[in-house]
Amino acid sequence: MLRLVPLKLGRLFRLVKLLALVGLLVILLMNTHSLLASFQKNELTDRRFLGLNKCPACFGTSWCRKFMNGQVSFETWGRLRFLDVFNVKNVFFARYGEPREGTRRVVLKRLGSNRELADIDQKICKRATGRARCDPVQAVYKTEFSRLNGDVRLLTPEVVEGWSDLVHCPSQRLLDRVVRRYAETKDSGSFLLKNLKDTEKMQLLMTLAFNPEPLVLQSFPSDEGWPFAKYLGACGRVVAVNYVGEELWSFYHAPWEQRVDLARQLMDIAEQLTNNDFDFALYLLDVSFDNFAVGPRDGKVIVVDAENVLVADKRLIRQNRPENYDVWYESRFEECDKEACLSFSKEALCSRVTVDHNYYAVCQNLLSRYATWRGTTGGLLHDPPPHLRDGQLEALLDECTNPRRRYGRFQAAKELRDYLTQLSTSSSASLATAR
């Protein structure tokens, strides 16, 4: 009797696989025409597919010539439109080519789901006409996205405060930086809005309100050492960024030495975004294994999803001196039955100079035993080798995640960074000796 159960389960499993295969075959047959057309046509030259027909209610046009010239094309599976139903995030992999430089991999993003993109059109229409449907191209001129048109000199905090995480509590210094580094204009380099066309101003505000990720990448560029993917350009409602590598989750079962190095880099990122020479604190509000990627050659960890980054200006906080501004702020640990949970107070992040949020986010959601992702718990530093099971690493991770002492996370984060650096250095030395 006991042997019949696995036999029946085995047959059931094979039947499910067969049905899935038949289902896929039916889908392919039903889409034969579109399948062949997908391989023959480069939809990245189609204005409607790119959302270029929506401009100036779009994200920019700096890369449109490259798209229209056929320099950007989907990778093989990305050409199959019927697979878009599985691509909820609207993220595509493509090849970009220059005549003398060859081709390289890039990532194309629509910055939101189809539902979210439709919602932004409805919001534009309702604010402009009171109706849910209209021509957003014309309606956008009657919304708050056009409030900078004309002779407005500066983008000021009262215009955009609270529109997104990037500008939840913006300072004039931050907004000047955003305008000065805005890449969707030929005349970037000045914080004065007079150098931007009215359509470019609307695109800037549209991006700031809908998904500010492109502006984070532009304002804190990888070329200057910030741990973000490189922004390349936009066409309509599609933006292009540099391909970094496989997502961090792919390294969950990597060799211990490699995971230690990745963990060290993650703590370094937490430190850099919290304390830097520019006195901007960039707080990561959405931390998961999917939001980081690892370079295939240098093994460098990069943030690849920067939509939910809150930027606080520490100079402004010191200047305004809000209540308890100089009291260290400790993020509160809360157990959660969902994946990638974080508890935080945006008001506290905006009003304190010294905050432990980034350490807490990295430790809880990526490194410690509390980290849960895709049904797996244990964190990136799971199953250390026997000689490291003396409790020191586990104690540091626990204190960094759920501190028992007041301000314990600050000290634990520092000690954890030092400990991981020591382990990483020792591993590198051992490998060099072995060679």
UniProtKB/TrEMBL annotation:
<dbReference type="GO" id="GO:0005576">
    <property type="term" value="C:extracellular region"/>
</dbReference>
<feature type="domain" description="FAM69 protein-kinase">
    <location>
        <begin position="206"/>
        <end position="403"/>
    </location>
</feature>
<protein>
    <recommendedName>
        <fullName>FAM69 protein-kinase domain-containing protein</fullName>
    </recommendedName>
</protein>
<keyword id="KW-0732">Signal</keyword>
<keyword id="KW-0964">Secreted</keyword>
<dbReference type="Pfam" id="PF12260">
    <property type="entry name" value="PIP49_C"/>
</dbReference>
<dbReference type="InterPro" id="IPR022049">
    <property type="entry name" value="FAM69_kinase_dom"/>
</dbReference>
<comment type="similarity">
    <text>Belongs to the DIPK family.</text>
</comment>
<dbReference type="InterPro" id="IPR020519">
    <property type="entry name" value="DIPK2A/B"/>
</dbReference>
